[in-house]
Amino acid sequence: MASTGPESPGNRFYFFAGIKELLPMVPGVLPFGLIAGANGTSLGFSPELTLGMTLLFFAGSAQLAAYQLIQDQALPAIIVFTALMVNIRFLIYSAAFAPLLHDMKTRHKWPLAYLLSDQAYGLCASRFSPQDNGREKLYYYIGAALALWVSWVGSVGLGLLVGEQIPAEWSLEFAIPLAFLAMLVANIRDRAALITAICSAMLAIGLSRLPYNLGFIAAIIGGTALGLMAGNLFVRKRSAFDE
To answer: How far apart are CA 23 and CA 147, in angstroms?
Structure first.
């Protein structure tokens, strides 16, 4: 795919394509934001503090996990470690985007790294190949990432305003595991990923009674380790079969 100049219609096309293809995901983002805003208020945080956390993190899952641990009066170290573990997947996302941003100046890389999200990564991964590092992919990513950021911050702001007035019977919190389940299923593309998902789920359920959300952390570490072991085993078996 040929690259065009930074002001060319081609780049604008991909920028707006990223926005357009992100918009169907906004209904899934809205419950996250409403709950994050409402939870911040229920914990006694000021609107400014809650919105500041939202802008600082830009990671809804980590923010909600931190809220839960704060409510459970967990140790600060546990809260920080859990947030890091929840966001560890961004190391993989960053590695995938590294060739795309390699030649950019640092002052341009930081904002683009800050805007990285599951949705923006998923859209780019589904539309472009890993080897495609043209400016079209970059502008598409910027469009999708900005659209997600605006949706997330706006939904949290809306949650601050009306979150406490939302009827409990709406069960918006149920949309959170469904959204993650949809992203999980879409990213299971081989047996190693399937084993990782199954092992992580079994560990999370079996260790759910551990204090300070330690079962969740153990599930991440244990599931990933078992998935890596399974992946290496499959590679060795394939190599032996080819020989």
So the answer is: 7
